[in-house]
Design brief:
Blueprint lengths: L5 E4 L4 H13 L5 E5 L2 H11 L2 E5 L17 E4 L7 H9 L3 E3 L8 H9 L5 E4 L7 H10 L4 E12 L6 H13 L3 E5 L2 E5 L1 H4 E5 L5 E6 L4 H9 L3 E9 L2 H4 L6 E10 L5 E10 L3 H16 L10 E3 L1 H4 L2 H10 L3 E4 L7
Helix pairs in contact: 1-10, 5-8, 5-12
Organism: Kribbella flavida (strain DSM 17836 / JCM 10339 / NBRC 14399)
InterPro entries: NAD(P)-bd_dom_sf
Protein name: Saccharopine dehydrogenase
Length: about 350
């Protein structure tokens, strides 16, 4: 049976186009619909991908402005679905929905929509840092522990790699929605005032970049997936080590884990997850992993319900895909390359 096209809202933007490229690489015959405000731009992306068509959309309309008779296997919102009509369209048609642009304090409408119509469509809440790829990598590292006590993630995003207009608008909107940070401290999810949430994030070459602990889905996701009583994620925007070397802006995520091994002896690890091409490949990976799982291209199609990335994708498999894309893990104890 032929799969219907995957509808990528914002498909001509950075996240959408990169997701399309990755899905095309993995599934050469998977049809795609690239949806955007500019038909010319969407058509260029569709032509480059092949087996794809382009459409314009209107997020203010319940039917998204799509012609009657169109059908899709999934709806992927790689931009802010500000009216939630992308979600409504997916529920009306009984197909999976993926979103990546709602912060921790913004997911309530999506959760309510899923709760009101629980049997209509699977909903993947992937508004994590890099659409869940960093969370999956961290959970993979945590599997070496018999008990995880604390998780500290420090992410450095290069200021010239913050995404296109939609990505920048997301950052500004989320900063307005909440300047407080969320951590898990002694087993309790705790809000941290902005002034107390300010921290420095260490780049892989040792440079300290001002940042802050943020309210992001990764914090409860990591805490509940591992049982760690202390979890935090700090985020900084500045010059990356790659750009300081005169290369492409890189992304650097430091992951520190503390706990115990099977004998009860203390165990810790400090790793950097890095990609020389920046955040774009990691974000596209998080989305693409969710899409192929939801529509049954990897495993069985997913039943209606509300899901997070770690519920659908094996972290070990995600790390395999990360390394295939050029990401690498570097010990924080290893001297950085000059």
């Amino acid at each position: 049976m032929e799969t219907e096209p995957v509808l990528i809202l914002g498909g001509s933007g950075q996240a959408g186009a990169s997701t399309g490229e990755l899905l095309r690489q993995w599934h050469p015959n998977l049809p795609l619909t690239i949806a955007g405000r500019s038909l010319d731009r969407a058509q260029r992306v569709a032509d480059e991908l092949g087996a794809a068509n382009a459409v314009t959309i209107d997020l203010a309309r319940a039917d998204l402005g799509l012609p009657a008779g169109h059908s899709h296997s999934a709806v992927v919102a790689t931009l802010w679905d500000n009216h939630l009509n992308g979600l409504r369209y997916a529920q009306d048609h009984g197909v999976p929905y993926v979103s990546i642009s709602n912060g921790l304090v913004e997911i309530a409408p999506e959760v309510v929509a899923g709760g009101q119509r629980p049997n209509t469509a699977p909903i993947l809440l992937a508004s994590h840092f890099c659409a869940g790829s960093v969370l999956l990598a961290t959970v993979h590292l945590a599997r070496k522990f018999a008990r995880v006590d604390s998780i500290r993630v420090g992410a450095l995003l290069d200021e010239v790699d913050a995404g296109g207009p939609a990505g920048l608008a997301d950052l500004e909107r989320l900063a307005t929605a909440s300047s407080a940070g969320l951590v898990r401290r002694d087993g309790v999810f705790t809000w941290i005032p902005e002034a107390d949430a300010r921290v420095d994030v260490r780049s892989i070459d040792g440079t300290m970049v001002p940042g802050q602990q943020i309210a992001v889905l990764d914090v409860p996701g990591l805490a509940l997936a591992t049982g760690a009583a202390d979890v935090q994620l700090a985020f900084a925007v500045g010059e990356s080590a790659g750009r300081r070397r005169g290369e492409h802006p890189s992304i650097e995520i430091r992951i520190d884990l503390d706990g115990a091994d099977e004998t009860g002896a203390p165990l810790s690890t400090s790793q950097y997850l890095v990609h020389p091409a920046g955040q774009r490949p990691l974000t596209a990976l998080g989305i693409a992993l969710g899409v192929e799982r939801l529509i049954g291209l990897r495993g069985e199609p997913v039943a209606p319900g509300i899901y997070t990335p770690e519920a659908l994708t094996d972290p070990a498999f995600a790390v395999e895909r990360l390394t295939e894309l050029g990401a690498s893990f570097v010990s924080a104890d290893t001297p950085a390359l000059k």
